[in-house]
Amino acid sequence: MGVISQFKSFFGRLFKKKNACIGIYGPPNAGKTTLANRIVKDWKDDADDNSEPIGSVSHIAHETRKAQRHHKLEIESKGSKICLDIVDTPGLATKIDFHDFMKEGMGEKESKQRSKEATEGVIESVKWLDDLDGVILVMDATENPYTQVNVTVIGNMEARKLPLLIVANKIDLPNSDPEAIKEAFPQHPFIGISALEGTNMETFYESIAKQFG
Amino acid sequence: MIQMSDIQLDLISDAKLSKMGSTEKVRYIIDEVRKGKIMVLEKGLDPMEEAKLIEMTMSEIHDDFYGLEIESYPRDDNVSFFGKLLKKDTGRQKLTVIGPANQLKTLRKDNSLISTLVSTK
Fold it and tell me: What ipTM, to 2 d.p.?
């Protein structure tokens, strides 16, 4: 790269750098925490090798029951640099039945406690919408997009004029249908990924830089 | 008096709901759902009312109330310029069905069809 282009690149990056607080939203078990952990792993400061994952993941719904925030991640893609605060939010739901946790092998007392914490988590997720600059909406590509609860709350995000990036997660699974999600939300930018396998993450970061940068 | 094997279905006109404030509307819906009623709203809630409905529902979930099922058609994003100018239903959902989560289950939904299963307790 020549001196001039290096100069341009440097100032281009400098002036394109933005700060934003982005919330990761979606229904329970869509893979929000897996994605948050992947983003942190990919972009954590090299000097901070001991940084912990944002949260633990589980096949049992509502594993994340408190919003977790990771400050100041610098994401760079194709000359755009963006400094993000990532907020991994509890899954949005309109119903939580403690019996569902018992079916997963939990005791009644533990299930009721998890249910109570999950309801508080949903309320916290809704309240976080007031403090965000944008939303990454994670949907499960193996589920019908229209019956995932975020179809109801997507209008809420639109009404707040929050920039949205729709992410169809779990495209590594054979029964996934990311195109169905894309077709359900034609008005928003869309990307299909596997947060678990790390599939298509470079394109995902390009989309983040474009949408929120 | 509703028998345990019966299910009451209320079709709520826009005229009835539009007379209520947001909090009153959400309170009314939750109270009716907690009685075991299935409600079909001629026009749904606006986005802020939906958020309030989710928050209030979560705060009331307990051993005998698991929350609610809510389905509606997507909003019409193609409101004309004059429609937007006149603020004509820009943020409102279309037909919406709401019921207790333990009695109303969505079987299938797309842009033009909502198929639900209603069961007794």
Answer: 0.80
